[in-house]
Amino acid sequence: MALSDLLTQKAVVLNLHARCKREALAMLADRAAGVTGADATAIREALIEREKLGSTGVGRGVAIPHGKIEGLGAITGLLAKLDAPIDFEAVDEQPVDLIFVLLAPADASAAHLKALARVSRLLRDERVREALRGAETPEALFTIAVDSERPHAA
Predict the structure, then answer these.
(1) Is 66 one of the catalytic residues?
(2) What residues contact residue 43 under an 8 Å CB cut-off, 6+ apart?
(3) Which of 17, 66, 112, 152 is catalytic?
(4) CA–CA dist 123, 120 (Å, integer)
């Protein structure tokens, strides 16, 4: 499953203005509802419940909140670059400015884990993170994320 299978241009948010983790998750749940047709409240609750298990702030300014949603048709991602970093209770205690939300159908165990690993691998790459932070349009954010997965000549 390629990142381009998870992410569409309308699922990319540039300069999201959120003051805290809860607000960011709520705004992204609303956006996800528009992209997937799933219920925004169900998405928001799934993301918040997952955060109660431990922060999805994985370090280096990145968070990967995720959850399973009843009735969702396919694994779906949303990518947001915040206008200012926020506290996400990340493992490295650094504020977060890049958030990749990953939503999966309730029965998508293995596929959900593979997608999570793919997103995590992508966002561990310092060059990718810096390119995303430098993006000035939603189209650029999308292109950087999707193209970064393609093999490059050494």
Answers:
(1) yes
(2) 29, 32, 33, 36, 67, 69, 103
(3) 66
(4) 5
3 state DSSP class of 74: coil
Contacts of 19 (CB under 8 A, 6+ apart): 86
The tokens for 124 are 């561990």
- The helix, strand and coil proportions of the chain, stated in percent and rounded to the nearest 5, come to 45, 25, 30
Query: How far is CA 105 from its chain centroid?
Result: 16
By DSSP bridging, strand 62-63 and strand 57-59 are antiparallel
Predicted local confidence at residue 1, as pLDDT = 73
Domains of the chain and CATH, by start:
3-147 (3.40.930.10)
* Residue range 44-77, pLDDT digits in tens: 999 999 999 999 999 999 999 999 999 999 999 9
Location of structure tokens 């504020």: 95
Helix (H, G, I), strand (E, B) or coil at 28: helix
Is the alpha carbon torsion for 93, 16, 20, 38 positive or negative? negative
What DSSP letter does each residue of 38-55 carry, written as one string?
S-HHHHHHHHHHHHHHS-
pTM of the model: 0.94
Name residue, tokens 């393609």.
Answer: 150
